[in-house]
Amino acid sequence: MAVGLYFGLRNVVGSGEIGWICVLAAFPFALCGFFTYNGMTFEKFLLAVIRSELLYPRKLVFRAENLYAQAMEHSTVKEALRLD
Predict the structure, then answer these.
(1) Alpha helices of 1-84 — where are they, by DSSP H?
(2) Closest Cα partner for 5 from 19, 16, 30?
(3) 17 and 10 Cβ atoms separated by less than 8 Å
(4) What would the pLDDT profile of 9-68 be if each residue is shown by its tens digit?
(5) At what angle do helices 2-9 and 15-32 cross, to 10 degrees?
(6) CA distance 77 to 74
(7) Cβ atoms of residues 26 and 1 within 8 Å
(8) What's the whole-model pTM score?
(9) If 0-12 CB within 10 Å is exposed, 13-18 middle and 19+ buried, where does residue 13 land?
(10) Which of 3, 44, 80, 84 could be a cystine partner for 40, CB 3.0 to 4.6 Å?
C-alpha cells in the first residue's frame, strides 16, 4: 500500500509529506498483524464474518411459547387456559 502511494504521489507531493502519507496509509495494515479474536488472525476473522453475514445469512424466526400453559396442560388443577 505504502509503495503504491509513494510511486503514485512522488511527483505531486513533496518528499516529507509523502513519507507521512505512506506511514498513515500503512498503519491499519500493520495493526491487522496484532489483531486476534477467539484465537483467529485477522484474515480468518474476516473470512468468518463474510461467511456468516453475507454468504450464509440465516433467517431468525420468533415463535412465542406459553410455557405456563404447556406445563399446566397435564396438571390436575382445573384452570381455564387459553391456548392460542
Answers:
(1) 2-9, 15-32, 42-50, 67-72
(2) 19
(3) no
(4) 888 888 888 889 999 999 999 999 999 999 999 999 999 999 988 888 778 888 888 888
(5) 160
(6) 9
(7) yes
(8) 0.52
(9) middle
(10) 44
pLDDT at 43: 94
d(CA 21, CA 1): 11
> By three-state DSSP, how is residue 40 classified?
strand
SS3 of residue 62 by DSSP:
coil
Question: pLDDT tens digits, residue range 63-83?
Answer: 888 888 787 777 766 555 555
Per-domain boundaries in the chain: 2-67
User: Which position has the grid cell 511527483?
Assistant: 11
**Count of positions (residues) in the chain:** 84
How many whole angstroms separate alpha carbon 49 and alpha carbon 59? 16
> Are 5 and 21 contacting, i.e. CB atoms less than 8 angstroms apart?
yes
